[in-house]
Write the structure tokens for this entry.
Amino acid sequence: MAADTTTVISRNPADPADVLVHLPAPGADVTARTVADARAAQPGWLGGGAAARAAALGAVADAVGAAADELAAFAVREVGKPVGEARAEVARTAAIWRYYAQAPYEAAGAVHEPAAGTGLLLTRRRPHGVAGLITPWNFPFAIPSWKAAPALAVGNAVVLKPAPEATACAQRLAEIIQLALPEGVFTVTPGGAVEGDALVATADVVSFTGSTAVGRAVARAAAERGVPVQAEMGGLNAAIVLPDADIAGAAAHIAAAVAGYAGQKCTATSRVIAVGAALDPLREALAEALRAVPVGDPAAAHTVCGPLIGERARETVRAASRGLPVLAEATAPEGPGWYAAPTLVEKVPADHALLRQEVFGPVAALLPAADLAEAVRITNAVPYGLVTSVHTADLDTALGGLDGLDTGMIRVNAPSTGVDFHLPFGGTKASSHGPREQGRAALEFYTSSRTYTLSPARPA
């Protein structure tokens, strides 16, 4: 059956009969007009000055904090995020806006001496115009915010196209943001591929987070237009456990990274590489930790693993481990939500899809490695390179022995999941395209550098 591109529908993953959004998709023409309206509003936003932009972003941070309980409830209901994680995401969202509220006061360039003679050479960073943002459903507040806040801070207008499954969250976030900003500076256009394509075809800078296939198409389309583009895509992340590691602590971290939010994070762990003598004790500790993961209603305070986002996602997860030896499996509810049991498998053939493709669910493979060098080779032997977690008590290993890892981020004695919003975020290979997100890197991405030569006037 062909996908319906004319209607935007969002359902509660824990109770699919609960429909949050059912509305007509606006279409390509409306999306293009939205971008045009944003472009008309952008000069006034930039011209209002740094103080006005800083105050507006600070007001958004305050409003997000004030609405924390309501927003967390939206994330639980619309995308099935366990309430503990939902609250943490909302708190991080407020912190993101507060962090970038200081950015308008950052230096926007530099002054240089000329190579010869008198005068000045200046560099200055200026906004692109309209930032087109395409965001996924799994972090419905944090990801739109860590894209929009830096774009707005440096003077761009923003048009956000959220995933259909997170439309209600995006609309509520937009209501909060729009109260602090001039009209037209921040707009949400709901929809799917049609609206996303129209946004990429009209925006002045594009930031995408989602699947690798779509991200590559977005990058190609933006590159053909000559506009800056970044795409954060998939992950097939490994956890390396060395024999000297705290095995119980590593197992707890890995179980959380496999099963937290049903593995629906690009930073989730899907491959566990046990080095040498770590294999047997890790197998036992990790199996025990995964079996103990609480799976169920995302609104319940104790839940770690809630439902998957949809029926198709659940079928993908079930198919990923079919026919493989199962070491451990948690207990999942039968329904009515789209639940799947967190699962650990072993003896996975090297050419198996589980070791080549992102599942985006709570399934992980336990893999042996003779030594650290082999563990690094196994880690790198996939198309993705987002994040690797490493568990060891040897600081020399952590600092020097892991330089061969071809991943954008390395987390030592910590889960693969977790993002520091003030540092660059991104990966290698099929995980990322273009400049990094977050931190100061985002301020550079949403601006272009101009060089000015100022020479003194000479009388004729």
Notes: The radius of gyration is 23 Å. The longest strand covers residues 15-24. The chain has 14 helices and 20 strands. The mean pLDDT is 96.
